[in-house]
Amino acid sequence: MAQKLKRGLFVTFEGPEGSGKSTHSQRLAGELMSDGYDVVHTAEPGGTPLGRGIRDMLLEKQDVRLGSRAELFLFEADRAQHVEEAITPALEARKIVLCDRFNTATFAYQGYGLGMDMDFVERIDEAATGGLQPDLTILMDVDVETGLARAGAEHPADRMEKRNIRFHKKVRQGYLDLAKRSPDRIKVVKVREKIDETYSFVKEEVYALIERYKRAE
């Protein structure tokens, strides 16, 4: 039976490399659809045709040098198009949007990881998103060494994954700091050895959010 919501819900998945964001968000999308919810599953960078070109430039073109500001602007250009073309229309249609990475990633990677001025990063993001914020962010937390090993076992390392261990440790700490600043929105889920155990915590957080916005037919 189709499930109705009072409004669209925006849930993002974040975490260090190899934390399992895509695995759990895709599984959740399938379960939500089986339960009758209208779901859009997307990701950044690359959630639109324009974004796929930007993603290739950001992550795959190893021979192209990107300065910190250029990298930030490319991520935010991807996000601006993503919000306008995909996320906002889905939310207006009262769908549940599940997104692998959003602006919390930028604050962690460009702000903490690269050491960019956070006020500057937040101003650029505000312009790109028009102020859109997730209703809930699931932060998949895993230690850096384990995460990078998992990612390396699944696919060749991209530009971001190839950065040094110090960078990745700053990113993880950034995520945890951001979660402490916004505990009502950012929920930390420790990655367990058993996938099903980790997923149960993810599902619990998201379904609790949904229950607050359900409406009987």
Explain how this protein is built:
This protein has one domain: Rossmann fold. It is α/β, with parallel strands linked by helices. The protein has helices spanning 21-34, 49-60, 68-92, 103-113, 118-129, 144-154, 165-181, 195-211, and strands at residues 4-5, 9-14, 39-43, 96-100, 136-141, 186-190, 214-215. 55% of the residues lie in helices and 14% in strands.
Beta strand %: 5-15%
CATH class: Alpha Beta
**pLDDT < 50 runs, ≥5 residues:** none
Number of DSSP-assigned strands: 7
Structural class: alpha/beta
Largest sheet: 5 strands, parallel
Shape: globular
How far apart the termini lie comes to 10 Å
The helix fraction, in percent, is: 40-55%
Written as H for each helix and E for each strand, in order along the chain, the element string is EEHEHHEHHEHHEHE
Which radius of gyration do the C-alpha atoms yield?
17 Å
Return the average pLDDT rounded to an integer: 93
Task: Determine the number of helices (DSSP H or I, runs of at least 4 residues).
Answer: 8
CATH superfamily: P-loop containing nucleotide triphosphate hydrolases
Q: Going across the major beta sheet, what is the strand order?
A: 3-4-2-5-6
Quote the CATH topology.
Answer: Rossmann fold
The CATH architecture designation is: 3-Layer(aba) Sandwich
